[in-house]
Amino acid sequence: MSVAAFLAELRSRDMEVWADGDQLRCNAPAGALTPEVREHLRQRKHDILEFLRSAETLARQQRAIVPLQPRGSGVPVFAVPGHSGDVFCYRALVDHLGHDQPFFGLQPPGVDGQAEPLARIEDLAAYFADQIRAFHGDSGPMVIAGYCAGGTIAFELARQLAERGASIAFVALFAGPYPHWYRSLPQLRERVRYVGGQVRHHLRELGSRSFAEGRRYVREHLRFRATRQEQSRSAVPDAVLIARHKVEAVTLAAVRTYEPQYFAGRLCLFVPNPKWLRSRNLTKRWRGVAGNVEVYGGPGCEGDALLLEPAAGTVADQFASRVLLS
Known about the structure:
Blueprint (H helix, E strand, L loop, with lengths): L2 H10 L3 E5 L2 E5 L7 H9 L1 H9 L1 H10 E5 L7 E4 L10 H7 L5 E4 L14 H16 L5 E6 L2 H14 L4 E7 L9 H24 L3 H24 L4 H19 L5 E8 L19 E7 L14 H14 L2
Parallel strand pairs: 4-5, 4-6, 6-7, 7-8, 8-9
Antiparallel strand pairs: 1-2, 3-5
Helix pairs in contact: 4-6, 5-11, 6-7
């Protein structure tokens, strides 16, 4: 286990380790500082002190790598969240994968409001690659994952890590469309499709009601929309939401202009429903830029629900079976 991973595990147990000159100090809850942990700290004192003294590396690592499940003997997973930068989108999946599957979220700059978001996919991937190399070192293979728009970042991240000599077991894209899907024309088609679906839904509802009930249905729907708009206008600005919205906008703009280069490794696509298999922008284009593409059929949900219950359990089973083959 690398020094960074060991310290991340200690943090998950509410144990704090810091350098005091040439000494190593530790603050831990009662019973947490076991003889085994003491011996580990003693044996690795020099390496830990060297790591802690690299203040810049440590500060950047703490912003980027979030230990969602740091323990376990499995191949570690480093996962890019969706365009909002919220690494906790993986919480249900991590719960299903269990305590033997190390799983780390990758938080992009800007989510905490302390830095500006990176405006190019290549730069964001390089930022994460530096974090992972400092954290994981050369201690074996890893899985790179990405959700939704984060799938594009994960793809470029894996490509850059492989170029640096890292061992990538495979890349997992959870409802990760090819980046061209985020461009103007495909998004307009999606919007038209969505609005058409809403219109058909309301027509069905009106068709099943009497004239008076239909008028009541329309009034209630309009009242609901007006209430939501009023709440939105009167809401007090939230600094966290403002920072997150900025990350969303910058990330999506970066994805739209990104052109994937060839990645010789394995790409596993976890799709939410059968229609993804028929879409050129959702699965077929990936086959042209990866050495080997595997597709895992979805649990029959929409893309934004793939990592939520109850779909997360199905995805976890599919993902775990792929990890065991690595």
